[in-house]
Write a structure and sequence with these properties.
With about 375 residues, the protein is α/β, with parallel strands linked by helices. It has twelve helices and 15 strands. Strand 2, helix 3 and strand 3 form a beta-alpha-beta unit. Helix 6 runs antiparallel to helix 12 and helix 10 crosses helix 12 (about 340-355).
Length: about 375
Amino acid sequence: MHFFRVVRLCLFSWCIVSGRAADTPAPAPLRVLLAGLAHGHAGGFLRQAEPAVVQLVGVWEPDDTVWAKYRTHVQLAQVTRYTDLNAALAQSAPEAVWAFSDTRDHLAIVRAAAPRKLPVIVEKPLAVAWAAAAEMAALARRHDTLVLTNYETSWYPAFEEIRQMLGPGSPLGPLRQIYAQAGHEGPVKIRVGPEFLAWLRDPVRGGGGALFDFGCYGANLATWWLGNRPPVSVTAHTSQFDKINYPDCDDHAVLQLVYPDVQVTVVGSWHWPYARKDVALYGENGSVVTTNDTAYAVRLGKTPLQARMAKAERRVPLRWFATTVRAGRDPVEDPSSLANNLITMQILEAARRSAAEGRTIKLSELDPLQ
């Protein structure tokens, strides 16, 4: 009899909990205005845009050719297209703006959205220059809104587990070296869309070639794993291995970031034989080397390599951004945060100057935030 009383009690409790869960309405989808479609990541966003999470309320895209490419997409079937950004912001009533424009337009989008207290999410990197990033930060601060940056690597379970290994008591010991490689065979070889290629290799619209396109990953990850610490100095070398396809920008970049206690080497290239975004970290006691987004190997001291598969939950980008936007606070310790990406932009600016001037650039040489 005691057994049946326990079962009835458990069932009663389950019904209460279930009833409460059923009574709790799911949050309404986040109302998002897409600002531009010239970025190749726009297609991926549209494929992932779950109606329960994101409601597209408008698209600002001034280029008729670019709009013609996307206008028949099922996610945009009932969405109004605007050619004027201010009209789009005023008439579509968004909760947030997600930019898939060229990088140069990120500043203009924040200038238009921030006074309306609208959070802005941009594709990496944050800006084309440190001055633009600093202005975006000032606008976010003045109008108490968010400016977030999306990186593919922010959603890698292996990279999250690396973060959990670091800090006091880390099995790796104090970090001494980080190596981060990112890139692919090049935008021409992988045949990105013409609207994407047009600005990707234009240093005015994109900030730089491979340096900004893929050097930003290593800078962002190092900043994340080192607790939003800026390096003391940056030395960079850029190359043009393919001057026919990339006549106006670099297509290979190597950055050396020097901190008081660790050095970071970043390679961003359009000349890998295959796509890659992998890292290696070496501490006093051991190392961790990733193979892809979930596979990595750890070696502690003289023990053999231990292959692991990441068990950290894979964060879903759109869900994470929707929750973060509604929370209304910069997620300082996250790689998407403005705090991180201001340092990332300082690194990229210093790297560009270093490559151009042939010298090491101290971050103290950059203008401070106003």
